[in-house]
Amino acid sequence: MTVQVVFALAAGAVVILDPAEVLDHPGVQMLAGSLVLMPIVMALLLALRFRRNHRSERIRTRNVSRLIDMVLSTSHDWVWAVDDQWKFTFSSQTSAGLLGYPPAELVGEPCSMIIDPDDLARGRRAVDASLGRESSSWKGVTMRCRHRDGSTVWMEVAGGIRPPADGQRGGFGGTSRLLPPETAQEAAASYSRTRIREMIDGKLLLTAFQPIHSLGTGHLIGVEALSRFVSDDGAGTEYWFREAAAVDLSAELEFAALTTALEAARELPPRIYVALNVSPATCLDPRLPGMLERSSLPLDRIVLELTERLEVPEYGPLVSALAPLRERGLRIAVDDAGSGFASMRHVLHVRPDIIKLDRSLIAGIDDDQGQRALGAALAEFARQIGATVVAEGIETQEELAAVTRIGMTAGQGYLLGRPSVHPREWAAWHKASIGELTPSNECASAPGRVSGIGGRRSASEDGRRA
Questions:
Q1: Is 195 exposed, middle or buried (0-12, 13-18, 19+ CB in 10 A)?
Q2: CB atoms inside a 10 Å sphere around CB 137
Q3: In this predicted model, what pLDDT tens digit does every residue of 58-85 receive, in sequence order?
Q4: CB 12 within 8 A of CB 29
Q5: Among residues of the chain, what percentage have pLDDT more than 70?
Q6: What is the pTM of this model?
């Protein structure tokens, strides 16, 4: 069209200038005029056609855009895009319903806003495995995401690689949809099994010991082993054992904790006992006697502390399984006595060597006559069956004085010593009496975040297993 316009202008210029007066003849003038007008007319026609096509294209583009907006706003799938730094560059409105974050709050933010680093690393490995050498897309990858309210959201993710274009950085784009409830439960179980296996196989368990002192002499007489888990999310000890129970890995995790505690116990001062938290089911496991016999501790320095608060259907097998070990010096303790009927049934049927009174009976005992009466009765009961009473969770001087006056013989709690993973602190407990003790903060010289550390309450309320 541009050429035609230029040609028409050139021809017009010739007609106007015409130095040789060649165009004086009427026929020639008509021919020259036609040559000038025809390109102009054709240019106009082409311009009209271009305008009409351009208008049609704009209408089509607008309709497609509206259709895409409608799909994005009504679809149950979440459409997203991230750059090569894993920051969101696009999010459909579905993110608000699925994750609690509208698009404006996601765009520009890293994926870690909704996905924990460990889960993102697992997802990237799954994507790499799906991509292969020739494929640039993937589908069917299960991801564990985090809702704004902290709850877990399981999604199926499909997507592909977005190469750099038009000066824009590359990245990934795709869709995510909620997993059906049954599939989400299966994914959660598989996720828990994987994490617990990684925890066990990677030996990411630590043991903290908390001192137990004689209330008569003030000397250290024993310690309780408390499991600690090294993890980025800082999940507590009870969480790990609860998850293990849900996926039938209780025994494996409990034995891993026992192994870790027995190895750490080599660094403890001599002659003190070590209380290991075990469930009745573990006591019935045929692997337990061999594990205890192979440890560096003699059986007369080991106390198995029954932690199960549920009733045991049959005590006969439990008593029979423990009898050979008890004959060789092993002692039994019942944990959380007084906190429920199940713990008292343990006391009556197992006849433990040590009865550990729950923190709920000790907290504020100096101000409550009823608690003191119950504590005195349990101390007398223990004396009559030849057992020792340990008051758990002593946190004030007044509580210490009260439990000593009513006849309790041993104590444990933050006032007497916080849990610690450091051998130098274990040695310091052995050298100090109750009056010389100062609280210490538990910490861990290990990578990652150690769960179960800190907090105000004593270890009796901490997630405990060893």
A1: buried
A2: 14
A3: 766 665 556 555 555 556 789 999 998 8
A4: no
A5: 77
A6: 0.70
Structure-token match 């709050």, residue found? 105
What's the rounded Cα separation, in Å, for the pair 256 and 200?
6
Q: What is the DSSP letter of 177?
A: E
Output Rg (C-alpha) for the chain, integer angstroms. Answer: 39
For residue 363, the SS3 value is coil
What does the pLDDT look like over 149-187, one tens digit per residue?
Answer: 989 999 999 998 888 877 777 889 999 999 998 888 888
Chain centroid to CA 111: how far?
Answer: 15
Pairing verdict, β 88-91 and 78-83:
antiparallel
Residues in the chain: 466
pLDDT of residue 309: 62
The span from the CA of 453 to the CA of 464, in Å, is 11
Q: How far apart are CA 140 and CA 273, in angstroms?
A: 53
DSSP character at residue 168: B
- At residue 447, the pLDDT reads 42
Concatenating the DSSP letter of every residue in 212-254 gives EEETTT--EEEEEEEEEEEETT---HHHHHHHHHHTT-HHHHH
Q: How far is CA 161 from CA 110, 157, 171, 172, 217, in A?
A: 17, 13, 6, 5, 70
8 A C-beta contact, residue 388 and residue 382: yes
Residue type, 85: Q
Burial category of 387 from C-beta neighbours within 10 Å (exposed 0-12, middle 13-18, buried 19 and up): buried
Report the distance separating Cα 180 and Cα 156, nearest Å.
10
Tokens standing for residue 348: 């009556």
Name the pLDDT band for 439 (thresholds 50, 70, 90): very low
Task: Supply 339's token pair.
Answer: 């906190």
Q: What's the confidence (pLDDT) of residue 24?
A: 56
d(CA 271, CA 221): 8
Q: How many angstroms separate the CA atoms of 81 and 50, rounded? A: 35
Per-residue pLDDT, averaged over 281-300, amounts to: 94
